[in-house]
Structure formats: structure tokens, C-alpha cells
């Protein structure tokens, strides 16, 4: 789980011990559809079966004749889609999610600070922190005269995600968390310039947000690399605040995509499949 290269080395050691012959079932497929497709060869060599979170992944494993089972995403195992009504959200509350790594904070916090400053005191800003960067973020914004709420507790963050009219977040797993909030989302990301030019030729997907990848079109706006500036983020924010029907449309569109991976009884399906090997 999570670290295939390490896991494959462990499996290789176990397979060399002829006294035991276990089955190896892998949960959460490596992103071979985006990067390093050659890993499919290692998966075929070491894994007896792989459980897939996303339905579009099936074709990659089918082509390589790797045994697989689409189980849906555990984030949405018991998710209830409700009628979209953004008028119930706080119209002046905006969430920012800068990530947890130091490199991400260094890139995004100065940009977010400029955005908040331009939006001004008529808005309340929520920042989703982690336990490890909470005090760093508190210190970073301590002299700000704006109303900024920072928390790291999951239940409190979820409450603010749901109340926010817009959420601006770096690309990653947080995107799916924010989709559960049924709020408008703007995805951002910025690489080190050298890394960007080194990696870009090998990346096979057109989008960075998983919802857009699933849809094969841009449902959630993305501001990547040179587009990831305070000015362009502000332009997007102003657009959605002036055209709130577009937020409703965005939520409706990404809900249609989420239905492909939600309420699939993920845990039960995996448990039942594992039992079949016992």
C-alpha cells in the first residue's frame, strides 16, 4: 500500500522463501496512467490482484492482463448527494489549502497572502492546516489585520469547507475532500521550474485535478505553473463570486463524475474478495 517500490522489494524477498507462498493483493493502484507506465511490468510480476479506486484505471491493467477489481473510493463509501444550494453557504467565506510540505508552503503562502490582501476585510479566510504546520501558519499570519481562521482538526476543517463559497487548494487528495464539501473549487499548483521542465515531457495526462482526469475535460478550474499567480487566482475568484450559477454548475458536473466512484461498498467488496483467497 502507498509505496509500491518499497513493497515490491519486500515481496521479492518473501517470494524467494519457497516455504511460504502467500497471495499479494495491492490496494490503491500506482498512478501508471499519469507517470511511469513501466511500473505495470513490476505489478504484473509481483501482485496477484490490484484493487482500483477509479473506473478509468481498468483499461490500463486489462491491457497488461493484470488481475484487478474496481472497488470505488473509500472517501465516498457512504456519501449522500444532496440538492445543491449555495445560497446556504457563507457568501464571504473563502478557504485556502496550501498543502503540508515546506516547499508547498514556500510557494503558495506568499501568493495566498496577496490574494487575501486584495480581497480585503469584507471576507473571512479559512486556512486548512495540518498538525505539523499549524503553528508555522499561525506565526506567518500573526500580523495580518484580516480575519483569518486556521485549524487542523478534521471535523473543524470539514465544517469550514462546507460553509465556504469557494475553496482554493493545491492539487492533491484534498481535491476529493473538498468535493465532499459541495463547494466551488479552484485548483492550483506550481513546481520548481527545473523540475517542471524535466518532468513535463513524461506526464501523460492533460489535467492535474483527479476530477478533470476522470472527466477528460476541465470541470474544476486549474491554475498551474505560470498561471499560478495572485492576479489569475483573483480573476477566477471574482468570476465565480459574480457568477454563482457557475459554482452550482461546477458542483453538479463534478457530482456526476463522483457518482462513478461513490457508494460502491468499497470495504465490504474488498473484504469479501480477500476472504475468497483464504
Structure write-up:
- By secondary structure, the protein is of the alpha/beta class.
- The chain has two domains: 4-78 and 263-275, 3-Layer(aba) Sandwich (Rossmann fold); 86-258, Glycogen Phosphorylase B (Rossmann fold).
- It is 44% helix and 16% strand.
- The chain is built from twelve helices and nine strands.
- It has helices at 4-16, 39-46, 58-63, 102-119, 134-140, 154-163, 174-181, 193-199, 210-215, 230-242, 244-258, 266-275; strands at residues 25-27, 49-52, 68-70, 90-97, 124-128, 147-151, 164-170, 184-189, 222-224.
- The strands form two sheets. Strands 6-5-4-7-8-9 form a six-stranded parallel β-sheet, with helices on both faces.
- Strand 2 (49-52), helix 3 and strand 3 (68-70) form a beta-alpha-beta unit.
- Helix 4 crosses helix 10, helix 6 (154-163) crosses helix 7 (174-181) and helix 10 (230-242) packs across helix 11 (244-258).
- The chain starts with a helix and ends with a helix.
- 30% of the residues are buried.
- The mean pLDDT is 90.
Amino acid at each position: 500500500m502507498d509505496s509500491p517500490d518499497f513493497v515490491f522489494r519486500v515481496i521479492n524477498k518473501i517470494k524467494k522463501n519457497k516455504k511460504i507462498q502467500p497471495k499479494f493483493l495491492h490496494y490503491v493502484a500506482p498512478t501508471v496512467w499519469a507517470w511511469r507506465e513501466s511500473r505495470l511490468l513490476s505489478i504484473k510480476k509481483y501482485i496477484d490482484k490490484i484493487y482500483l479506486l477509479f473506473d478509468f484505471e481498468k483499461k490500463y491493467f486489462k491491457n497488461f492482463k493484470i488481475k484487478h477489481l474496481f472497488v470505488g473510493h473509500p472517501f465516498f463509501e457512504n456519501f449522500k448527494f444532496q440538492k445543491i444550494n449555495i445560497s446556504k453557504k457563507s457568501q464571504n467565506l473563502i478557504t485556502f489549502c496550501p498543502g503540508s510540505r515546506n516547499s508547498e508552503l514556500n510557494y503558495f503562502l506568499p501568493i495566498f497572502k496577496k490574494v487575501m490582501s486584495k480581497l480585503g476585510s469584507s471576507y473571512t479566510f479559512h486556512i486548512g492546516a495540518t498538525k505539523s504546520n499549524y503553528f508555522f501558519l499561525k506565526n506567518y499570519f500573526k500580523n495580518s489585520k484580516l480575519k483569518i481562521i486556521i485549524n487542523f482538526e478534521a471535523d473543524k476543517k470539514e465544517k469550514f469547507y462546507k460553509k465556504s463559497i469557494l475553496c482554493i487548494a493545491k492539487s492533491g487528495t484534498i481535491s476529493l475532500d473538498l468535493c465532499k464539501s459541495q463547494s466551488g473549487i479552484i485548483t492550483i499548483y506550481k513546481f520548481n521550474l527545473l523540475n517542471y521542465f524535466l518532468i513535463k515531457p513524461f506526464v501523460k495526462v492533460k489535467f492535474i485535478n483527479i476530477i478533470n482526469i476522470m472527466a477528460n475535460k476541465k470541470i474544476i478550474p486549474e491554475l498551474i505553473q505560470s498561471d499560478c499567480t495572485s492576479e489569475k487566482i483573483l480573476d477566477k475568484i471574482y468570476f465565480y463570486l459574480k457568477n454563482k450559477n457557475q459554482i452550482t454548475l461546477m458542483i453538479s458536473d463534478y457530482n456526476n463524475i463522483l457518482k462513478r466512484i461513490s457508494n460502491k461498498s468499497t470495504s465490504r467488496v474488498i473484504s469479501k474478495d480477500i476472504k475468497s483467497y483464504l
